[in-house]
Amino acid sequence: MMILTSKIKWQPFSKKHKRYIKAALNNRICVAEGAIRSGKTIDHCIIAAMYLEQSPDRIHLASGSTIPNAKLNIGDCNGFGLEHLFRGRCRWGKYKDNDALFIRTQTGNKIVIFAGGGKADSYKRILGNSYGLWIATEINEHYDSEDSRTSFIKVASGRQTAALWPFTLWDLNPCHPEHTIYRWYIDYYKETMPDKYLYQQFVMADNLSISPGRVEEIISQYTKDSVWYRRDILGERVAAEGLIYRQFADNKDQYIKKLDKENLNDVMFLSIGIDFGGSKSLTAFVATAIHTAFNRVTVVSDYKIKAPKGEIDAERVCKELLNFINRIKKEYPWLFIKYIWADNEAQYLINSIRGSIRSSGMRIEVRDSKKKRIKDRIVAANTLLNTNRLFIGKDCILVQGGLASAVWDSKRPDERLDNFSTDIDILDAFEYSWEPFISRLCPDIR
To answer: Measuring CA to CA, which residue among 407, 392, 383, 395 is closest to residue 253?
Structure first.
């Protein structure tokens, strides 16, 4: 059988990475935890390729919090993922309605199904198959519960029972030390299966492909001693406590501006985020200016619908949104409103908004919000604050109040406390307005 090869420009591997890769296939479960950009996922893609070349099993599983996340981090992995390692002998396709990578190996054809594991019903997509390999990125973002029938983690593990060579690869960035991923799995495995379990913590310095200058640049985006610095840079398991945006709360004057044509002269477009009210929340609008080359963002206007909480009337939402847009146009006539990003869980409201915008003659694209993980949105906002690239208009008191008062939820690790205040309600709309551009605003946030 002719095996096609792929040329990848590898950088040197540290001794820690070499030891981990060489020891991996002698174990049943391998877990790589640690700082961002420390090389964890690349190791696992290499190990997965080694395994697939030898495995007698035909069907395998690759998962992330979402399918795009799995395909980006395991399939592509910045040019080091499975589709690159098997370039010339693999193709993307569908297997029983699931996204899959079909691979020709030395031991036959293999199918790697890509799945999202972040939702309560995600387990349904992986039923019906027996998996040899399960490679998961950001395992702590996968849905889990005590019910083995609905927990993605438990279902995926159970699907390996009949495999000839069951093998698991998990990676994660550190999170709350009491997270169940540690208590029920990662730390538990250390005690119960020491001979078949490989665990390794990595820090950024272990990744020799990152230059010292680039390391310093990444570190400079963090506030020293913050929870994100300790997790992302030092690779520590740390509980998130207290104020989320302390940098803003302690230095408001640095970020609040009186807006005029001079400090908005390089704006590419305005982007509006909408969060629809629910049983205890208010519908809110936030308009954010995206500056040239995505070098910074400025909140130019915010608004909440003054109605009893829980009442969402499509006609009223559309009317108040048009008034909101017209006020912005009147105050900032030189700015171009390009997008509206609306909470994607209320499609009937989004359809009403699309019709209203179309009828008004405005050329504004109405799209579903990206709804990235709250943690990623928080990290991005803090990164923008720490690098002096996020500013709030003087009159945007709702966003100011939300940023100044947002705190962590002590009962739910890594989540923002929803205390149903009007200031907190505005933060989702604020984040929806710029989150589609996170990869350009903050390239180091996946």
So the answer is: 392
Q: What is the pLDDT of residues 363-385, one digit of tens each?
A: 999 999 998 888 889 999 999 99
According to the model, what pLDDT value does residue 422 have? 44
Contact partners, residue 258, CB within 8 Å, separation at least 6 = 393, 394
Q: Residue 401's domain is classified under what CATH number?
A: 3.30.420.280
CATH number at residue 98: 3.40.50.300
**Residues in CB range of 245: below 8 A, 6 or more apart:** 381, 382, 385, 403, 404, 406
State how far Cα 26 lies from the chain centre.
32
How would you label 407-428 residue by residue, b for 16+ Cβ within 10 Å and e otherwise? ebeeeebbbbbeeeeebbbbbb
> Quick one: which of 434, 436, 421, 422 has its CA closest to 389?
434
On whether both 250 and 207 belong to a single domain, the answer is: no
Does one domain contain both 177 and 286?
no
Q: How many domains does the chain have?
A: 2
Q: Is the pLDDT of residue 308 over 70?
A: no
Domain co-membership, 30 together with 158: yes
> Residue 22: exposed, middle, or buried by beta-carbon count in 10 A (0-12, 13-18, 19+)?
exposed
Range of the domain at 25: 15-212
Rounded to 5 degrees, what are φ and ψ at 52?
-60, -35
List alpha helices for 368-417, DSSP H: 374-386, 397-405
Q: Are residues 200 and 97 in the same domain?
A: yes
In angstroms, the CA 71 to CA 69 distance is 6
pLDDT tens readout for residues 10-36: 888 999 999 999 999 999 999 999 999
Check whether residue 259 and residue 408 sit in a common domain: yes
pLDDT tens for each residue of 116-172: 999 999 999 999 999 999 999 999 999 999 899 999 999 999 999 999 999 999 999
Residue 128 amino acid letter: G
Helix (H, G, I), strand (E, B) or coil at 182: helix
pLDDT in tens, 178-230: 788 998 999 999 989 989 999 999 999 999 999 989 999 999 888 877 888 88
**Cα–Cα nearest to 386, from 308, 317, 296, 282:** 296
138 Rama class: left (phi>0) / alpha (psi -120 to 50) / beta: left
Is residue 321 domain-shared with residue 399, that is, in the same domain? Answer: yes
Do residues 320 and 408 share a domain?
A: yes
